[in-house]
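Notes on consecutive records. When two proteins share a document, each keeps its own sequence and its own token line. Never mix them. Below: protein one.
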Amino acid sequence: MGKLKIAIIGCGRISVVYKEAFKNLSDRIEVRFAVDKVLDRAESFAKEFEQCSFSDRIEDLLEEDLDVVHICTPHFLHKEQIIKCLDKGIHVLTEKPLAITLQDADAIIEAANSSGRKFGVIFQNRYIEGVVKAKQLIDNGEMGKVLGAWSSLTWWRPPSYYECDWKGSWEKEGGGVLIDQAIHSIDLVQHLVGSKVKWIKGQIDNRVLKSVEVEDVASAAIGFENGCIYSLFATNYYTKSSPIQIEIMCDNGIINIKGFDVTIEKDGERTTIEHNDKIESGGQGYWGIYHYYQIKEFYDNVIEDTPVKVTGYEGKKALEIVLGVYESAKESIKLEINN
């Protein structure tokens, strides 16, 4: 197989990360097409690559001979765009969240399964070196039973962040700090705990960012089938974007995550696994470099015809928790999950 012919839909804020990843992976890909509803953004992105065309219409992209499309558009557009690309026989890697409803998520998963194409959801923090090691230790039983977990996200999103036609809207963004920012830490916790969710009791509020209708703070207690209780807190009205913190308490030790560094305490020994900072990622520092690793792996999956790790099914797990917190909070109930 020659180089993969790839395209991107959505050339906004997150696209700088993809631009750097594409350049670092030029030995295996050719960037052929860029789409954005703002034509100037698509043109600017395309100019970074030889033989890359651009348009403000997805229909033009679908006429091209492509292997992989990256979806980096507003949340509410994911379902339609993903399914259109899959139906054209194109492999798809989408930004989180998979969708903004479980019905849409299921429709995407069904389309991916029936298409026979590779499909994945970006949860790049699973590729942090220390997270990979922690997952191995939990799965092989070295950490013992997982007893509890907590995560804390204290970030800042100024009013200017929401000065667009979709962010801050239940209809188009699907929520606020949970679905847009905390979904990454939620995914990491459920990934490490390795159990299905049994119940959720959540609260959400809009306390400070009054220019938007969605939540700017959320908290929840989440019970897993293996007995682990997860305490979740997230806000984006803090004065700065501090490193995300996560703790996983196990019988035989503790896993602590702060930003991208992971400390593992086991059998009286403490090891800190520092993150790789030798790859240029572009974008905000708190995004990290791990898009590169997941994108590279996805290309390998396509080239070698191997299974995708973060599938639509995997991507749906964090979305189920987010939407469960919303439902619990809005209905003032302890939500029981029927798995």
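Protein two starts on the next line and is unrelated to protein one.
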Amino acid sequence: MRSRRTTLAVPASNPRFIEKARELPADEFFLDLEDAVAPQAKEEARAHVVAALNAGGWGDRVRVVRINDVTTPYAYRDVIEVVEGAGANLDCLMLPKASSPDHVVWLDLLLTQIEQASGLPVGRIGIEAQIEDARGLTRVEEIAGSSRRLETLVFGPGDLMASLNMKTLVVGEQPPGYTEGDAYHFILMRILLAARAHDLQAIDGPYFGVRDVEAFTRAARRSAALGFDGKWVLHPAQIEAGNAVYSPSQEDYDHAELILDAYDHATRVQGRGAAMLGDEMIDEASRKMALVIAAKGRAAGMERTRSDESSA
């Protein structure tokens, strides 16, 4: 599992922003060739992307490029120039406005052809698919199962809100007048269910009030509570909050590791299907739940502070 607690959007046409991004502690960054780049700047932006990826300095962060959507005249050149120029230093391509599984299949096929022609390992470059309109949401299960390259499904709130005619102008915020519950709950759950059914990660979309860290944190906590793996960030101020929200607490991480230890001892040494951890009974279901928390903690680089229940 790649850690994607925070995914930093970086305009590919701005070398200063690209350089700044190298210093920021987001788990993933994506160099954006789509919405952040004007049509007349897209060709030059591709060159910036290739140079930035090949220059390195990204550490262990996930390296992603968002191409233009498949209905535009830019998409195929984005894929060809970026992968031929810097495919060895690229982890994933992000596919915006994925409204059909055919869009993912097209990208998968084109990637395979470029990899074969360029001598790159076939299948190593992953795909992140953005769900950004009503058509994509209604076909999200098909999209999630359309390619072995898929690693994540990403909620694209701005375009999806427009697609649904939502009455709001702040991307990521609840629409005015909606006072009962969360207007995005159904959308988030549908994306999450499709992702988990195909062993993919689920990433929440951005919150555009970039300086309101409290509001960003509030929005992030909703999707984190459901089980989302991370969220887009648009500003350095959002990164620390996002990393904290999508990481388990130290107490929960330690507890998860203790459950795994205790259950392993009970089944492997004692031959039992259930055990006690202090006053808590644990079984196979407990192990599965603990694996989720432990995996997220390990991916985030957390270390245990407790090795047995007696040290609690």
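For the record: Strands lie at 6-11, 28-32, 62-66, 92-95, 126-131, 150-155, 201-204, 230-233, 275-277, 280-282.
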